[in-house]
Amino acid sequence: MPSADPSAIILEARGLCFLREDEPVFGPLDFALRAGEIALVEGDNGSGKTTLMRVLTGMLRPGEGEVRLDGATFSLDTMAGAVVFLGHQLGLKLDLSPRENLRVSSGLYGQREGADADLALAEVGLSGFEDEPVRRLSAGQKKRAALARLLIVPARVWLLDEPYANLDREGIALVNRLLEGHAQRGGAALVTSHGAVRFAGGEPRRIRLHA
Ligand SMILES: Nc1ncnc2c1ncn2[C@@H]1O[C@H](COP(=O)(O)OP(=O)(O)OP(=O)(O)O)[C@@H](O)[C@H]1O
């Protein structure tokens, strides 16, 4: 990951809209996320927070406007490996263990220099559960297993849809710790949350969606 250059825009949306049956779900939306920045995406139920995340990963095509990564127009090629999405569906293979799931993730998205699966699992509080099939883990432990992926893959942009859901107070602090470390390494993140979020670094940037 490059060192943090606070002036470098990593992810940018310009006049971004998503249309469903010609009706806008959100937008037009403009924002620029720089290295080391974390922004909270806010909006009422149904305002399009999850849809925005899906557009930014390339799973959905924007109706209008564009997404830029490092100044280049979005394409699945430029996003691959640079962006990681953690959504309501955690993307875990239930028959595999947390350790095996991390191996699958690094096979698909690459591995950050110096990343270590067991250290990542210890950091998210899953020591002793490394080899347990994921289906036997609690909802909070499953969430932690998915969060460990963030410590393994090299992506500079994290898109986290409701990362605090199913987590206790300690888990919420863990998410904040992961975000803080990511920002310090020069990464950027967009986070949605229904609850109040307290980032250790103070008030987060806010991107507001209107239903
Ligand atoms: N697959 C779909 N087909 C049709 N409409 C959909 C689909 N997914 C979402 N929608 C609609 O698109 C709008 C935006 O949904 P989205 O899930 O992005 O909102 P959200 O802000 O994430 O909501 P919440 O806060 O409730 O999670 C809503 O009106 C929703 O009903």
TrEMBL record:
Keywords: ATP-binding, Cytochrome c-type biogenesis, Membrane, Nucleotide-binding, Translocase, Transport. Residues 11-209 form the ABC transporter domain. The lineage of its organism: Bacteria, Pseudomonadati, Pseudomonadota, Gammaproteobacteria, Lysobacterales. This is Cytochrome c biogenesis heme-transporting ATPase CcmA. InterPro entries: AAA+_ATPase, ABC_transporter-like_ATP-bd, ABC_transporter-like_CS, ABC_transptr_haem_export_CcmA, P-loop_NTPase. The keyword Transport applies. PROSITE patterns: ABC_TRANSPORTER_1, ABC_TRANSPORTER_2.
